[in-house]
Design a protein that fits this description.
This protein is of the alpha/beta class. It has helices at about 30-35, 75-80, 100-110, 115, 125, 150-155, 190-205, 215-225, 235-245, 250-255, 280-295, 310-315, 330-340, 345-350, 385-400, 435-450; strands spanning about 1-5, 40-45, 50-60, 65-70, 130-140, 160-170, 180-190, 300-305, 320-325, 355, 370-375, 400-410, 450-460, 470-475.
Amino acid sequence: MLMTLTFEPDPATDSDPMGTDATDTDATVLGYLVHKHPGRVQTFTAPVGDIHVFYPEASPERCTVAVLLEVDAVGLARDKRFRGDALALSHYVNDRPYTASSMFAVALGSVFRTAMTGRSDTYPELAATPLPLRVELPVVATRGSGAAGLVHRLFEPLGWEVEETPIPLDAEHPEWGPSRYSSLVLSGRVLLAHALRQLYVLLPVLDDAKHYWVGDDEVAKLTRAGEGWLAEHPERELVTRRYLAHQSSLVERFDGPREESAVPDGGAEPVVAAAAPEPLRAARAEAVLRALADVHAHRVVDMGCGPGALLTRLAKDRSFTEIVGTDVSVRALEAAERVLRLREASDAERERVRLLHGSVVYRDDRVRGFDAVVLMEVVEHVDESRLPALEDAVFEHARPGSVVVTTPNADYNPLYENLAEGAFRHDDHRFEWSREEFRAWASAVASRRGYEVEFRPVGAEDPALGSPTQLALFRRRSA
């Protein structure tokens, strides 16, 4: 799986951002922009395989950086992060080693992470200037409904000239027609950071597949990678839906909640699909809302709010008169702001719903004295050595009337067929507690800090292993 990216300054049209004549622009500055030295072959080990970065050519007139991904199909089949294929055989018989797809997008994100942010300490002006770039991808796949012309529809609105050459099923039998694969050349004057982020998003969109588990963090990834180009894209809805693996809950979170369309007078009633099992993330949020209602909370802090999964539900319920979301990630807060549409909201609504940069392990005077604090799927992301600091910041310093904590139930994990024994449900989890361990921690915290605690299941319960998520509702005794 290969990609080349070429920078070739055009003396006739380019002006040097450094203030010199265009003919003095050395094309090898591309090495500074992608943060990879042209004089070396570099190899990086990533979950998707070995990634090699090298320069087939590096002269003052023209510079090309190549990325070669060697996919370890057996290793991927054993890795819980790449378990998206439905059939076991597809782990070993597939087009991953040859086609630029989500595997290659992961590789780009691994080796060009800094370049994708647009940061260059040596050439900041050049990083902020559209450059004449040429991207060559020998094999891309276009799948799914509406695949005809998809490459042009995705890349041309972004300023790229597209050369797509269909690859035949068999060169010796042209009568069989083209395959679903093409070679692709993109040429255009584009910001380097945008070019890399566009490839990071649109390669999986073309393939209409993710070869790894698609979870809540994909919304934040799309928000970051789509910054500066996706909002105005004419195919934004298609890009969002495909990138988020057609998961309606994730698409809604990225786009923000939408009101249902009213049926015009005399119009036909909308067709209602058969009810599907409630996703665990929705059941978890509803369980938190029920707990907040049970303690009559009106002023609520969502600590570790992420991109706004719970905040959107809180904001729609007018019984909550003050809502604060905090997170250590600025990117997550930006995503939450977008989902909540706070920039377009009234002054009163921005007073009612606020976002704060903060950590669950540090005391924060801004969140003291609220009716309730929620830690929804947060504690398992904190190093166990830092749990005493979390306990102090939440139960001692903030000291709300109630605290709602949800966390995975490790006892339930064997019921996940694709989860390896002893593995966690998410790569960022520092631990996952059994029901006994969670009860022991919560009961000890309640005893030390003057709270009563009640335990509730979340999601469909197994008679022996319990529910997939466990919830603890703390009520302060003095409250």
